[in-house]
Automatic annotation (TrEMBL):
It holds the Pfam family ADH_N. Transmembrane segments: none annotated. Coiled coil: none annotated. Residues 25-358 form the Enoyl reductase (ER) domain. This is Enoyl reductase (ER) domain-containing protein. It comes from the Eukaryota. GO terms for molecular function: oxidoreductase activity.
Length: 379
């Protein structure tokens, strides 16, 4: 292992000691460990000093056991956090892409963290130091503000692969979207981590985007690229689109809500697709999609669920768009590392637009805003 700076032997990290099945209490269930051993990088691993970690619904879904059938945590406690930006401090002996001192973006990935061959994680970014395979990292220019990129990997790759396939595929191995100039795209949930990036990317590639959002976020979602927004709290999006005669209109319907929890709803949603159109769900409604497969052959051809893969080639395109100013990861709030519970709670409360970040105070001059946990929380 090579290192430019002295790396301490211990670090602070947030840990989840067991599943907490009550989502509203999930933020209280992580605790700060004051002196965990700093992980040692394996042959192809890079040890990163984390400056910013992103908070994602996947973090609290992991803590609450939502994924436990498919991705069971085998060893507790574990450190949450899938995405981070920071500085390389040490490298495994077979690493060839990075050097100590490089600024990097990394995505630990849900699928990658739980693959049978994974020798890191699961997750691990809510810590002062974190190891990541070098194939899941991306080198950033030395001069960049890391907070601009930290929220990009998980949400950006999900949006990118759903819309354009890239190196992604459906959970059954089929290609995903092929959005381009003139495509009509409907995004259910266009205001949070994945949604706000999907709206911008689809527009960037020449598509016309319709997105659902709550009333206070409609103007913002239009400002970042949606041609039309639907206030899902006022009227069901299906009714609104029926009244506008939009059945058969969309090339791609991206479900970020898990809106369709029944076979009937998925079949109803597919009526808004044009022939060859696709209904792509990233939000854990695989059961509904399986039911459609059994019940309605025509609809099942259109329906796909997906799990993003942490691929540095796709990440390269995303970083380029951000660096050029064509894509922006909106940061709703940045919390100091010591307030990870508040950050998680903010994400759970579903109040954010864009992403929520955690900042290592000693590593950056980034500013933050603290919030008070509500009645269901409390640090
Ligand atoms: N498959 C993968 O690889 C992958 C990768 C990343 C994330 N995900 C999953 O993708 C989903 C989206 O993630 P995210 O980061 O964008 O944030 P999120 O917080 O899960 O976003 C949920 C979205 O759904 C909207 N919403 C909630 N209830 C609704 C309802 N009844 N009707 C219509 N819209 C409703 C929310 O709108 P408001 O803001 O108005 O409440 C928000 O836009 C999550 O389930 C996450 O776990 C999957």
């Amino acid at each position: 292992m090579t290192s430019k700076h002295p790396v301490p032997s211990t670090m602070r990290a947030w840990q989840c000691k067991e599943y907490c099945h009550n989502t509203s209490r999930a933020a209280k269930e992580i605790s700060l460990a004051g002196s965990l051993p700093v992980p040692s990088p394996g042959s192809y691993h890079v040890l990163v000093h984390v400056h910013f970690a992103a908070v994602d619904p996947m973090d609290w879904n992991l803590i609450t056991g939502v994924y436990k059938d498919r991705f069971p945590v085998k060893h507790f406690p574990f450190v949450p956090g899938f995405d981070a930006a920071g500085e390389v401090v040490a490298l495994g002996p077979d690493c060839s892409t990075f050097k100590a001192g490089d600024k990097v973006l990394m995505g630990l990935g849900l699928a990658e963290s739980f693959s049978e061959t994974a020798d890191f994680g699961p997750a691990g970014a809510f810590a002062e130091y974190c190891v990541c395979p070098e194939s899941q990292m991306f080198k950033l220019p030395a001069s960049v503000d890391l907070s601009v990129f930290a929220g990009l990997p998980m949400s950006g790759l999900t949006a990118y692969q759903a819309l354009f396939t890239g190196n992604g595929s459906s959970t059954t191995g089929q290609p995903l979207g092929n959005v381009g100039p003139g495509s009509q795209v409907l995004v259910l949930g266009g205001d949070r981590g994945v949604g706000h990036l999907a709206v911008q990317m689809a527009k960037l590639r020449g598509a016309t985007v319709v997105a659902t959002a709550s009333p206070n976020k409609l103007a913002w979602v239009e400002a970042i690229g949606a041609a039309q927004t639907i206030n899902y709290k006022q009227e069901a999006w299906t009714q609104q689109l029926v009244s506008e005669g939009k059945e058969g209109s969309f090339d791609l319907l991206l479900d970020l809500v898990g809106w369709a929890t029944s076979c009937e709803e998925v079949v109803r949603a597919t009526k808004f697709l044009c022939p060859q159109g696709q209904y792509i769900s990233v939000a854990n409604n695989a059961e509904a999609l399986e039911a459609v497969e059994a019940a309605d052959t025509q609809a099942s051809c259109a329906c796909k669920s997906m799990l993003a893969t942490c691929n540095s080639e796709d990440l390269d395109q995303l970083v380029q768009w951000v660096a050029e100013g064509n894509l922006k990861v909106y940061v709703d709030r940045t919390y100091p590392f010591s307030e990870a519970r508040h950050a998680l709670h903010h994400s759970i409360l579903s109040q954010s637009s864009g992403k929520v970040l955690l900042c290592q105070c000693s590593a950056s001059s980034g500013h933050w805003h603290a919030t008070t946990l509500g009645a269901s929380g409390g640090a």
